[in-house]
Structure formats: structure tokens, C-alpha cells
Records
---
Amino acid sequence: MANITAGMVKDLRDKTGAGMMDCKAALNETGGDMEAAMDWLRKKGITKAAKKAGRAAAEGLVGVATGGNIGALVEVNSETDFVARNDEFKDFVKTAARLALEEEGVLDRLLKKSMGANDVQQTLVNLVAKIGENMSVRRTIMLGVDQGVVSAYVHNAASPELGKIGVLVALKSAAPADKLNALGRQIAMHVAAANPLALTPAHLDAAVVEKERSIQADIARQSGKPENVIEKMLEGRMRKFYEESVLVSQTFLAPGAEDGITVGKAVEKAAKELGTPIALEGFVRFQVGEGIEKVEGDFADEVAKMAGH
């Protein structure tokens, strides 16, 4: 049997909001597998954890740079939020984002790009030596359209180009750039808040869809109803999943948006008002530390060790 620690139980509780005993039971049932434990809790109806499963677990900043019809994001991690507020660190991330735009969001090329007297990687190494805390350029990406704009939004902004969440939205259109940017920024703000999994149902990972279908089928079967009824229930449950998970199907969260209108319909409405087609080509969302497991120690124990006890 897997050794289920108090830390594992706490981590599962933080991710799901379920009770401590339920979390312990879920981990025991799944041999300590965190992902499987979250699924087990959902199937039991104890929690709806999907939205919380990717919570940030490391510090740092996301930098954003745009240039008309292109935009880039870069995530630079640090050990503490204290360093993320350091002006030299912030300047490094801002510059890295601009260079990422030049290097088309390719990480290897970015790290070798000149930054002052050194390349990006060596500049960061020097910053680590100066500040005394580990840092890394974790990832970068570029988004572009042939015609139109790439709009950006930064949430929890440390400055206009830096924050804990960075979003790019690509709109393809011949409409005026200022009008497109206004719409694109609203959609980017929506993406920051709603965290969609994909642009359309077709863009969803097949494994994610199959996993959700399996979970919802198990939940539906607990009703004890016949299979033909369960199949219809499943159709409704999956439709709801798409409405919650796919950008074009999500209810638009922008201030002043028409009540109940979806993001897709809002784009269609804007196209009609501007008298030219608008295509929502894609989006990218970076949140600092998502997917990184943070190692948490006992603070009192660390202090004792530092004191030599």
C-alpha cells in the first residue's frame, strides 16, 4: 500500500476543496495517484475539481510583448514572490518578452539571443548569482495572424507588460486595428478569468474528452436508469462540458457584454457592426507556475536547521 502522507492529503484538499477524510480515502483507493484521486472524488460527487487542478505552484512573472499582428509570452520563474517584485528581475522578464517576439517564441533561440553583454541564459545566470535565488526561463510562445491583430492582457499586473497571468488573442480581419484590439483585449480578459481548455470542440485533446466522458458516464450510471436514458444524460453532460471548457462556447464575461452571449456570438456581432468578417484564430494563456509542483517544507524545521540545531 502506498504511503499516504499528510502533505499529500493537504495538497489534494487544496486542489479540490474536499474534506480531509474524503481526500485520504481517495488517495488510499488510488494508491496515492493525485490525478486518479481527483477523478475518484468527482465520480463520488464529492467535488468538482477540474477547474482547480492546475493551480499555480511556483513564483515569478509572465512577460508580454506585442507588435501589430504578432505577440509573444514568456514565463520566468523564481523561488519567491519577493524576487518577482525585484526591479532587475522585472526588467529581465520585460526584455526577454521583447526578444521572444524577435525569436518567434522559440525557447532555445531566445536563450541564445544577445541581451546586453551576454546572451539571455548567461544574463540570467549572472542575476541568480547577484540575487542569490534560483531562476529559470521556463517557456515562451508566439502567436500571429496574416491580417488583423494579436491583443494582449496581463492579470495581477506588476506593470503593463508583466503579471501572474498573460494572455494573447489572435483576431483575423480587415477591420480597423483599434476596433479589433478593443475586442481582442476583452476576449483576452475573458480568457484570463475563464481559463478555457481550447478554442473549439475540435481543438480539445481527444484524451481529455474521453476522460471527461468516462467520468460523466460513471456519474450518470449512479442514477440507476437504463442505458438509453443514461446515453441522453451523457449527451447533456458533455454539452455542458463543452460550454464550460471551449472558448467560443463560453458565456462572454466582458463588462457590458449582452446577457448570456457566448464569445463566438460576440465576435459574430462585432463583425456585423464593423461590416467585415472577424475570425477568432487562437489564444494562448500562461499562468505563473501552472503544472509545477512546489515542495513545501516545515518552516520551523528549516529555521532549526539554519540555526544548527
---
Amino acid sequence: MNALPTPAAATADDVLVVDGLRKDYGGATVVDGLSFSIRRGTCYALLGPNGAGKTTTLRCCLGLTEPDGGGITLVGEPVPRHARRARIRVGVVPQMDNLDPDFTVTENLVVYGRYFGLADAEVLARVPGLLEFANLAHKKDARIGELSGGMKRRLTLARALVNDPDLIFMDEPTTGLDPQARHVIWERLKQLLARRKTILLTTHFMDEAERLATQLAVIDHGRKIAEGSPRDLIRAHIEPQVIEVYGDGALAWAERDGRQLADRLEVSGETAFCYAAEPARLLQSLERTAALRYLHRPANLEDVFLKLTGREMRDEA
């Protein structure tokens, strides 16, 4: 598939501009001419299967990995040349929490602030607001080992805000969390967006991207294969209605009726996915087959993702 067009030239509202980014490892191209830009006060999501180049892209943008081609402008600074200067205005929530277990919640924030040249007194003045934002005020003196997984994730988010950043990089921010903790994180991210903060998000949760992202790009094999708002991508790439058929006889029904009645049919394991603009005839057929179980729903971003990148499992690169 051909690369999508390079974005327009950077404007004053562009917090991050990536133009033709390329990175090779051992003769293999991991990021292949990737271009996108992020406007201030928005959430931009990078979606892709394992090994698509998402984390490498983030590392290049932060100046942690030297690119082999292309240009990056981060908060107005060229990267990697002025990456250290740019990172002072950036917050990072990594995939894995790397909080210091030897320090309390408050001490983790104070020590992290020193990396940005902030005086302890300045960070301590910010701590009450940060802990209130993370709903951790009651844990300010707790050791990290006393916190739940959701609490650690919220503290990692609060820590990323110590320097009052213009842009926050979030690499899989809710991986490993239960649904309640994920929803709490989502609400905090929405609060940041309401405060005109800017977020670059990578996630494997399509509902997360659909809820939070203003714009998103789907990347695969290091190349951008689709870009737009969640709603626009669903409208452009997928039929509006989906019927998932499963249970005994599902595959036989799919070959007999589903393939003729659906606009498009996909089979994965023991489930048949029927995509249609008008699902009435499909539903009538299913109602006549009592043994079958099915779910009728509107199309979503996960359907788009699977159509563009495939349903096969992939290992981490």
C-alpha cells in the first residue's frame, strides 16, 4: 500500500510534527516514511499490531533513538539535535511503571522533578494538586509496594505532570488494569484535554482510542495505512452494521446463508463476522436457526483495525 501524503507544514498550534520518519534495525525497516502532526489540546493515537513501529516512533520523537531519516519537531525544537531541551516540556507515561520502591509517593514526585531542574520546594508545592488529580492524597506517605496496580498507574500519570508539560507521551497507559481502573484513567485524561494539554497515545484498546482520540493513525510494518477521526475511519472503511455469529453450526450457517446475505463475511476461529449496510435478511435467517447465538451491534474502531491489519496473532518484534 502506498504511503499516505505528508502532513502540511507545521503551524504554531502543532506541538509535534513528524515528517518522513525512518528507522532501520539490522537491515529491517521498522519505521518507513511515517508522517503526522499533533495540534495543541488534542489527543492523537497511534494504533498498530505488535511490531508495527509504535514504540520506536515514540523513542525517536523523544530523542532516545536516533532516526535514519526524516524530520521531527517536538514543542518547537528539532529532534534529536535539541531533544534534551524539548523533553523539559514533555511528560512521559511508559508502558511499565518504573516508580522507585524505596521512596514514598511524595518522594517519587520530588525526585522526578529534579530531572527537570525543579527545586524540591517547587515540586512540593505542586504535590497536593498532583495527588488530588490522581486521587492519591490519602496515600502521600505510602511506599510504592503498598499501592494497587491502578494506584501505581495513576501515580505514574501524576509524575508525568510534575513539570507541567505541553505534550504527554502515553505508551499503553492502561495495560494490565481492570475495567474500573481503566475508566478512572480515561476520566483523568479527559480532564487533561479539557485543560488544553496535548496527548500522544499508543494503545491496544480500540475503545480507549475511540473514546479519547481526536485523530488517530493506523500503522503497520512501520507505514501509515489510515488516518482520521475515529468516526471518519469507521465510516470510510467498514460497513455500518456487524453481526457476530457463534456456537454450534455457526460456520455451516455462514457458508450456507451468511456468505450470500452479508456484504462481507469474515471467519475467525468459531465465529463468523457478518458486515452489512442492511442486516434485516441476516437477522431473519438467524432467527429461523434456533441453535445459533449471535450479537448484533454497530461497527466500531476494532472492526476497522482488524480489517486493515488482519486478525492473525503477531509476536513482539
---
Amino acid sequence: MGRGAPEIDKLRAFFNHPGFIEASADRLQEALREIPPSTRQNVQVVYTAHSIPVSMAETCDYVRQLEEVRKLVSAQLGVTNDALAYQSRSGAPGQPWLEPDILDYLRKVKALDLASAVVLAPISFISDHMEVLFDLDIEAQQLCASLQLPMVRAKTVGVHPKFIAMIRELVLERMSSDAERRALGSLGPRQDVCAEDCCPAPQRPGRSVAPEMVSKPRI
């Protein structure tokens, strides 16, 4: 605040940056090696992300970005048996959020015999914070134990050297107008600053705006 305060720039979205994808793939590869040899014949990778209200997801490309990460990481490792599930749901019980919930999905894996073991890869989290530790290392692990479904959780990118190098690269990128903007896949590199209309506010069902509310400013 005030004169002389530092200016802060936010790094652009990096979901499809090679540094993030390669670090995520390395973490997943480490987890796959932990699966017992007796259950490696049909391992499923379940990518997890923080759930958000469906109304929010419909006005942005959050799910599209997650699917791109899933596709890119699986392609790097030759994974063909994978899925995307969601965790950390909150809010009113009656409000639709992105599904399937990770616990519900694990029950489905066991009930339908979709895999002999699972590796959970939290791709929308960059550090092993409490949501990852509780949702996956406690709740999901306890459920898998009760289902007799072998489970390993991949680490987040955290302090992986490739991820740290990516952060440095993005800082340098912002300091130069002609720097290479690297990105994998079909979505391309994101802008430095999101457009004002990139994620419009969700429209509440059945809600209309009165004419006088359009013409008069509100506080």
C-alpha cells in the first residue's frame, strides 16, 4: 500500500507447461514403482482435482485444463488405464459440484473390478498440504484398505527440480517481451493476465434482473 509499494505480477497459468507435465509424470512414475508386483497387471491411474460447483465449471475451462494434464501426463508414461475424479467438495449439500467424488469412484473401481490397484495423482495441487493429506492419505487410504484395493498416492510436484526450473523460466518470460512461451498439447500458452470475461460469474437458475437494476448503480 502507498507510494513505493512493490508491484506484484502473477505468473501465467502453467497447466500445460513442459516443466509441470514432466515433473508430474516423474512423480507418477515414482508412485507406479511402489505398486506391489503381484497387482501391477491392471493398475489404474486416478488423477484427482479440487471439485468446484458445476455452475462455475460451466463458465470456464477448468475441466478442459484438467483433461489436458491427464492426457499429457499419461501420454508421457504410456498409461492407458486412467480416470479423473474430484476431491475436497464443500458448500451446500444440494448444490451440484463436479463428480465423481474420489471415494465414490474408488468404490466403483472395486465393485466393477476396473483395476487390481490404483495410483492417485493429485494434479491440481502443487504441494502436499492438508487437503491432499486428509482426502487421499487418510480417507482414500482407509477406504482402499477396507475394500482390499491396493493404493499408492503420487507426490505433488512440490520442490521437484523441473517444477522449480519452470517457475524460474516463467519469471524470466515475464521480464522479456520476446521470450519463448512453451506449452504442450493443443491449448497453447495462456495469456499473462486473464481477460475480464474469461470466467463470467455463474448465473443463478431462475434469477432475472429488473430493468431498474440495470440502469441504476448499486453498492
---
Amino acid sequence: MGIELLDLVVIVAAIAVGAFIKGATGGGLPQLAIPVMAVFLGVEHAVVVMAIPGVVANGLLVWSHRAEASKTRYLPVMVGAGIAGSIIGTMLLKTLDGRVLSGVLAAVIVGYIVLAVLKPGFTLPASVTRVGSAPVGLVAGGLQGATGISGPLLTTWLHGFGMPPRAYVFAISSLFFVFSSVQAITLAGIGLYTSTRLLESLLALLPILLALPLGVRAAKKLSPQTFQRVILVLLAASVVSLVHDTLAGAPS
């Protein structure tokens, strides 16, 4: 499918803005870039092209925030469970109803947002995070494998930990790094990478490498309270997307 120069500008802008948001918050790149790219390239093409940039972007954030690792909790448990879940989710890809999953996830996020707004500074009890991290990791991996929408669940869960902003970015980027790596390897294994798509993936790295560091710098100027509010706004935006997916029957 050929695209015009203006279309290319829109795609590059979406990738750059998504990378900026990702640098600041740890999320937002695929949620913004893939829907825009899908308009011009198709969903499968967009997902394949953005898989490798997702690995690189998350890897860079993990490395730049590595000093925050000690401030996270239960991350190895979530990573291990998430890998298992992604395998299960991929195997169940053709049998699960993505619309139902999107609707349930949207309801969970709305409930959490309401609670966080009514009780500012709310965090999940330690007993809940200890018991729930493995199941949440498993479900998030399953959602990633089956529908590609693990981000809203992970964002909601990790926001409830009340971690410092940089520790939060390290935690969610670590999970996304593992999931996107599994995704990229799977896509390559089933032959969805052509030489053209591989080149497009590498070119997509250019705006990411420029905008991601700017987002990281911007995050340093945000207070913890402002950072938490930004995450809640992103969660609200994800609800809109999930509701659309539920009604349209085309989860992204």
C-alpha cells in the first residue's frame, strides 16, 4: 500500500508524540502510533512495524532507569507470570472474544480511576500487591498475546503501588520490554517480517530516538502528584479506546 508524503508526516508525528509520552510516563507509544499507522498501512502491518521499535524504546527506558530497580516490588514475579500468560494468550488467540475482554478491562480501569480520584494518594495494600502480582502478570501477558492490550491493565496495577515516578517507569518499561520482545520474536517466527517491513521498523526508530529522551527530561520536571495525575489521564484515554474496541468489535 503506497502512502503520500502528508500521510508519512502524520505517521512520523504520531510516533514522535507517542515516544515523548513514553519517555515521560513509560507508556503511550503503541497506543498512539499503531492506530494512526493502521489507518494508512492496516492493523497487521502497523503492529509488525512497531514491534521492534517497542523493544528498543522499552530497553532504553529500562537501562536509563536501572538505578530504580530496588524501589519496585514483585517485578520478577510479574515478568515470569507474564511470559507464561503471553504464550497461553497467543495459543488462545482465535478462541477468545476480544470485545468481552476489552469491556471487562475498561470496567476495571474505570473503577480504579473513580477510587483514585475520590481518595487522592490511594495505593493498593501490600497484602494485595503481594498476592495479586503473579495473577495480574499472568492475565496481562495473556491479554498481550490474545489482544495486544496489556498496557491499560499494567498501568492500572502499577499505579496502585504508589511508586516514585522513575521507579514506576522502570517497572512498566521492564514488563513492556519482555512482552514486546516475545511479540517481536513470535512475529519473526511466523514469517510476518519482510525486508520492507524490517526497514520500516528501523526507520521508525529515528523519531523515537529523538523524542524519547525529551520525554525523559520533561518527566524530571513533574512533581510526583502531577505525574500520578498524568497517568490517570492516560488511563482515562485507554478506557475510551477500550470502549470503542468493545462497540466496534476490533480490539487493538
